[in-house]
Amino acid sequence: MSSLALFLLVVALAALGWLMARARATAFRRGGSAPRAHSLPSYHGWYVALWTAVPALIFIAVWTPLSANLVMDEVMSAPAAASLPPFEMQRVAILREAREIAEGIRPGGFHPESNALAPAYADALSRTRTMGAVVALLLAFAGGAFAFTRVSPHFRARTRVERLVMAALLGASTIAILTTLGIIASLLFESARFFSLVDPLEFLFGTHWSPQIAIRADQAGASGGFGAIPLFWGTIFIGAIIAMLVAIPLGLMSAIYLTQYARPAVRRWMKPLLEMLAGVPTVVYGYFAALTVAPAVRDFGKAIGIASATSESALAAGLVMGIMIIPFVSSMADDSINAVPQAMRDGSLAMGATTSETIRRVIVPAALPGVVGGVLLAVSRAIGETMIVVMAAGLAANLTANPFASVTTVTTQIVQLLTGDQEFDSAKTLAAFALGLVLFVVTLLLNIVALRVVKKYREAYE
Amino acid sequence: MRRRIRRRYAAERRFRLLGLGAILLSAAFLAFLLVTMVSNGLGGFRQTEIRVDIDFAANTLSAASAGGEIEAAVAAAAEAQYGPGGARALSDTAWLRVERAIEDDPSILARKKALWLPAASAIDGAAKGDGDGEAEALVTRLEQDDAIRTGFNTDFLTGADATDPAAVGIWGAFKGSLLTMLVTLAIAFPVGVLSAVYLEEYAPRNRWTDMIEVSINNLAAVPSIIFGLLGLAVFLNTFHLPRSAPLVGGLTLALMTMPVIVIAGRNAIKSVPPSIRDAALGIGASKVQVVFHHVLPLALPGILTGTIIGMARALGETAPLLMIGMRAFIATPPDGITSPASVLPVQIFLWSDEVSRGFVEKTSAAIIVLLAFLLAMNGLAIFLRNKFERRW
């Protein structure tokens, strides 16, 4: 019996338990002779249903991965397994075929070995599955029966059920912590392995990045270069400089226009329209950058006499990223401009200043901390952005301030290092985790600082 | 004095125009992006077909013929009809359609039959007005014979990835996206809603709760590629789940979407007025009953809106999925959540890397499909918000 069928069967049993227990609890109520029941009948139903389902489902969840290993052990000990080729890839392919034959997905295998293995596989599969199904159903019946015997007018079913609900709530909210811990642990653990191979100082301050690992030990550049400064520079150049040169003026001026000048109808239409820019998937921006913007930038560079202009340039990636960031800047600026007390605006206008003078001399300075916070958030968003730079910025680790040249970023290199088939333990793949750690720490710091700035500023006017 | 006022008013007008210009420029970028994609991509929904007369009686094909034989017969028929180069005018997968025609109606094996077969990528481009001289000459000749037509490309909507741009389809990636989103929703929605309820309604003020809040707010700001690294290190290398499967993609995206749902859910729950809770408590409901019978149903529209927005973000996400190996060439739609799959954004990324010119319109067409879905999801979210949002 497959896991899914077993799961459905257990759920059906639980539903049956729910109905039976509720019927029994309803009978107490009707009887009238018994004292008034503590819990409503449906709570008795839930109590029985949970006792039926939860232990059995936990067992299934543990058993399913465990049984796969058991099946594998049994298949490998079968006589037909002795003729398996030693190569990992072939073995995996043959075993997969044997499983598919055993399950009846395909009639016959491409490899002769898989046909020989199939009966052993089918045998092992059916044995472990029957075992799992029997134990799961026993658990379900035992749990359900135990709970059913406790259904009585005095039994506090509601309290028990609510206790489980609270446990589920607490459990769900710890998943957030587990995820954070998982991120930190996996990044730290893999980075530690990387730094046992490569000196951390060389990684952080080296200027030579060429993560190829030589095939032979005596080859030139056998150790590879893991100086990440060119990547950090490329990331800052694209995400924090070029993108912000586009996003800050456009985002800030849009926010000013929408909050100060635009009629409500215009504002109602333009604000969602601007926010659509943030909803476009980054892969679409990346394609747009590579297909349309990059050739235009290259031609422009050639036209103004820069011979080194390539079709993968920092400018193209940065421009498109800046467009993507506009709504972040503008919505943060919007919020902080709206938070400036009306009295300050009125005071300035009453002194005879024009609207633009009020905005430039009073509102923007007053809203500045919020705007700065928004810009910091936007920077953290820009440097973590992946697809645009992967598709438009190129792979050459240049340390250059020429916007028409190709630069590479931290995220591009993470993608580059981890895609493709290679050993997971090489310095090359581990370097991706070290880069990820740097990215994580930097974005975290930027966010903390930004939120601090925004919070402090809010308090100033409240 | 008057001159000075005039100057100040001019500055005022300039500033105002600058603001308007900024908005219009941003909107123009959006319009330009959409127009580029639509104008490039509309061609991808149309397919050029060439009529080939195959004399089944004259060749040795039978219902049990292998693919290679059919392919050779089709090539021979095309060469015979349109001269040398005729076979190259057909798509690599044109014989599949002949095979299907034989399956549908085995009686055609005894006679001569004109079949419309998909054209090769170069011919397809030339027929749509973007080809080289040789292909265009052939198209002109075919047009004179009335042997070429351009129709709606059903293969694009029903097929999967292929090496030939004329034969690619979006269904495989779309199904992968659908399965991935199902896994994401099945995990992120319950976990997100339950955490939001806990944090907003029950959590005591202590360090543990503070830690949960801090981690949720941080997770919402972590770059998506970091989630990909987490998925790679935990789901693939520790738990050994299958590579490039919707299961792993869905789990990874669920961790990314959950904070969005928690934050939206908390705001929705917070906006339910305390009088509702007090009234329910006052007539004897337990704390769990108050939340699950009264607060949650009232907060549900807000939670759903947040969920849809979070799911739309997950649907467009590419980088974390690249990390867990979802960039393989997958030529068949996935059968389940554990079989290898591609998803729409990754498919777009893969096609954008192809050099062949035919892929440009297919990539843009895939982008149109993706954007249409995102627009529909966001439209649904706005509709829900406008219809069910209550101000207390």
Automatic annotation (TrEMBL), chain A:
The chain crosses the membrane at residues 47-66, 133-152, 164-189, 231-258, 278-297, 309-329, 362-380, 430-454. It is a multi-pass membrane protein. Its main location: membrane. GO terms for cellular component: plasma membrane. Gene3D superfamilies: MetI-like (1.10.3720.10). It holds the Pfam family BPD_transp_1. Residues 233-450 form the ABC transmembrane type-1 domain. GO terms for biological process: phosphate ion transport. Keywords: Cell inner membrane, Cell membrane, Membrane, Phosphate transport, Transmembrane, Transmembrane helix, Transport. It is found in: Cell inner membrane; Cell membrane. InterPro entries: MetI-like, MetI-like_sf, Phosphate_PstC, PstC_N. GO terms for molecular function: phosphate transmembrane transporter activity. Part of the binding-protein-dependent transport system for phosphate; probably responsible for the translocation of the substrate across the membrane. Belongs to the binding-protein-dependent transport system permease family. CysTW subfamily. This is Phosphate transport system permease protein. It comes from Sphingomonas parva.
